[in-house]
Amino acid sequence: MDCIFCKIANGDIPSTTIYEDSDFRVITDINPVNLGHCLILPKTHAGNIYELNEELTGKAFTLAKKIAAAVQKATGCSGVNILQNNGEAAGQTVFHFHIHIIPRFKDDDMVLSFGSFKTDSESIAAMGKKITEVLHL
Ligand code: AMP
Ligand code: ZN
């Protein structure tokens, strides 16, 4: 199966990795809604939440809480959206389960719209590194 998130999660394609354990890799989104936008990817393939086993589903959302706290500290954001899309109708574009962690700012006046935030890969990686540093505190 040709799944880009399987390749990224298992290290076959390089990524800006914020966190990794035996079950998950957490990366910065290549096209962030805001700086610090991260994705939690399980290392085993599941197309969506229905295909992810109960144990990994629990672990994924426990990890989401931990990453959200680090994103909050690293970005100084005043809010965080935790988003998980299932199916094309829900806006899913990559069909490997993932959880979005999205920092939000009081006056960002943002309607969640993927691809709307303009930045560059260096800024994305620098914020990813900062989140990793906060995670290890
Ligand atoms: P979704 O719409 O929930 O399927 O989200 C897919 C997300 O994956 C989008 O926010 C994309 O910007 C992001 N994305 C796609 N390809 C990559 C990649 N190679 N590395 C990092 N993020 C990616
Ligand atoms: Zn996959």
Give a description of the structure:
The structure is a single chain. With 137 residues, the chain is α+β, with helices and mostly antiparallel strands. It has a single domain, classed as HIT-like (HIT family, subunit A, 2-Layer Sandwich). It has 3 helices and 5 strands. A 5-stranded antiparallel beta sheet has the order 1-2-3-5-4. Helix 2 crosses helix 3. The chain is globular and about 40 Å long. The N and C termini lie far apart (38 Å). The site of zinc ion (ZN) has 5 residues, from helix 1. The site of adenosine monophosphate has 13 residues, from loops.
Concise account of the structure shown:
This protein is α+β, with helices and mostly antiparallel strands and 137 residues long. It has helices at 4-9, 54-75, 121-135, and strands spanning 17-20, 24-28, 38-42, 79-83, 99-104.
